[in-house]
Design a protein that fits this description.
Largest sheet: 9 strands, mixed
Number of helices: 10
Bound molecules: pyridoxal-5'-phosphate
Order of helices and strands: EHEHEHEHEHEHEHEEHEEHEEEEHEE
Distance between the termini: 36 Å
Radius of gyration: 22 Å
Low-confidence stretches: 1-11
Oligomer: single chain
Helix content: 25-40%
Length: 367
């Protein structure tokens, strides 16, 4: 039994053709491809002479984080205190929360507890709350806005915030930025990578001229990671690269043979001409719908089959002109954005060498 029915349509990589015996919908990870993705990013950052601190919000998995550290990652990036707590408990002792953490009373207590067991640093992008962070004794990285215009400050403002940290008694380890605007389209990627390097270079230069020491100059998204590993950038934080997804395919960041995770689904209904229904809806595929993409996922091996609509438990798929799978067939769906999909599942179904190899918990799910 083949997941894709690839024999009836375009050829698909062998790993999409396995595991008929799993309950669907399921989040499947291909161990061999996962390891290749982990190794190639580790090799590339090592060759560029910079540290790799992968973003663990993509996989939320201590099993996968262990593989990343074994391949040479210096520590983990996380998005939330909840993720930091889970990874600290699992034994990861060098964590960076790449987020402007608001030091509420509860956050201060949690940070305090974390800082007693692991090395933990957090992002800041305003002078509000600095003294509360100083009380905890964590070091910070100042977030720079390099063009996404989400969080972060413009590089020309970095000395002002650096001095405010100094006055509050807060140790500044350096700066970080994220080129989220690289996701606008294939033509945006190289420009966004240059924006990252330029923002980091301007900030490092200004801080050093002002006599403020910079040890960490951190950049990186999956689309830009290899391009921005240069200049004063000395750390990269890609996350999605471990699995890749339909967005990375559309951006030209990878080919289908680099996709290491997908949602396995069963065709459950086929009563309307030109479409069929799978048992993966918004509670399995998530609802991310970047402007770059049509629909919510694609089915490798089934020509232009695209998930065009989602209910909670139904995914409506446009049937290829050359014919689609039959009711009862299992298909693989490459989702638009794998990070939000992972957070919908309790576990990964792990496939290795074309065989079912077991399951891994999504350790920090919901955190
Ligand atoms: N750093 C920060 C601050 C992020 O927000 C993200 C992703 O959202 C990343 C790193 C990782 O980027 P990517 O998902 O493109 O690998």
């Amino acid at each position: 039994v083949r997941l894709t029915g690839g024999d009836r349509n375009t050829p698909v990589p062998a790993r999409f053709e396995v595991v008929p015996q799993i309950d669907t919908p399921a989040l499947v990870v291909d161990l061999d491809q996962l390891q290749r993705n982990i190794d190639s990013m580790a090799d590339a950052t090592r060759a560029a002479g910079i540290a790799l601190r992968p973003h663990a919000k993509t996989h939320k998995s201590s099993d996968i984080a262990r593989l990343q550290l074994a391949a040479g990652a210096v520590g983990l990036t996380v998005a939330t205190l909840g993720e930091a707590e889970i990874f600290a408990k699992a034994g990861f002792d060098d964590l960076f929360v790449a987020y402007p953490v608001w030091p509420s009373r509860s956050a201060v207590a949690r940070l305090h507890a974390l800082s007693e067991r692991v090395r933990i640093r957090v992002g800041v992008d305003s002078d509000a709350g600095l003294s509360k962070l100083a009380d905890v004794g964590v070091a910070v990285l100042i977030e720079l806005d390099c063009g996404q215009h989400r969080s972060g400050i413009p590089p020309h403002d970095v000395v002002r915030l650096g001095r405010a940290c100094e006055r509050a008694g807060l140790e500044v380890s350096g700066v970080f930025t994220h080129a989220g605007h690289s996701y606008a389209g294939p033509e945006a990627v190289a420009r966004a990578a240059r924006d990252e390097v330029e923002a980091v270079a301007a900030a490092v230069c200004a801080l050093e001229r002002a006599g403020l020491e910079v040890t960490v100059a951190s950049a990186g998204s999956t689309p830009t990671a290899l391009l921005s590993a240069t200049g004063p950038v000395n750390e990269s934080r890609p996350g999605t690269y471990v699995f890749n997804d339909r967005q990375q395919l559309a951006l030209g960041v990878c080919e289908l043979d680099r996709v290491a995770a997908y949602v396995a689904a069963t065709v459950v209904s086929n009563n309307v001409d030109g479409r069929f229904v799978i048992d993966a809806g918004s509670k399995a595929l998530a609802g991310d719908h970047p402007p770059l993409l049509e629909g919510f996922g694609s089915l490798p091996g089934w020509d232009d089959a695209v998930v065009t609509a989602l209910s909670e438990h139904h995914g409506t798929v446009r049937e290829p002109a050359s014919g689609g799978p039959r009711v009862g067939d299992t298909v693989a769906v490459v989702p638009n954005h794998i990070c939000t999909v992972v957070n919908l599942f309790d576990r990964f179904v792990v496939v290795g060498g074309g065989e079912l190899a077991g399951t891994w918990p999504v350790t920090a799910r919901g955190r």
